[in-house]
Amino acid sequence: MRLLIFTFFILLSVSISAQSETVYTKEVGLEATTSTVINLPGTVNLKRWDSEHIKIVANVQINFDESILKRLMLVGRYKINTSMNSTTIVIDMPTVDRYVAIKGVELIDTFSFDVYAPEGYRVFVKNKMNKGYSLNL
Predict the structure, then answer these.
(1) Mapped to the 3 state alphabet, what secondary structure does 47-105 carry?
(2) Alpha-carbon separation of residue 121 from 46, 94, 105, 124 (angstroms)
């Protein structure tokens, strides 16, 4: 019985230590646009600031160690893409929809984003978490 309890605590500590997190930033120039559509996975918090560009602070957590997280960053899994559609900027992260398993264990990514946009600039957030809403900062 003691061996079983000891083994359980060892496995629990290994699974807890096998989680990692990173925070990174991307800035997007507004050029001649009037609005932005944000389609990012996870929670998106919109904030107003006094600058002429959009700043995205991304927080990514995974259920593997830091070395796996670094490799996923290097291959572009968490790359934030921007594209222009007439007067609208579209911001998304298309590669996170791909299924990933490492040694038979499914990768679980958790995201949160702080998006800073200039006052008076129109932002539309559309994703699975937020169901879609628009905000005129």
Answers:
(1) EEECCCEEEEEEEEEECCCHHHHHHHHHCCCCCCEEEEECCEEEEECHHHHCCCEECCE
(2) 12, 24, 42, 10
Q: 73-117, pLDDT tens digit by residue?
A: 999 999 999 999 889 999 999 999 899 999 999 999 999 999 999
Instruction: Find out whether 72 and 128 touch, Cβ atoms under 8 Å.
Output: no
Per the listing, tokens 């496995």 go with 11
Q: How many CA atoms lie within 13 A of 136 on its CB side?
A: 2
| Residue 30 near residue 62 (C-beta atoms within 8 A) | no
pTM beyond 0.70: yes
Six-digit token pair at 31?
Answer: 């050029």
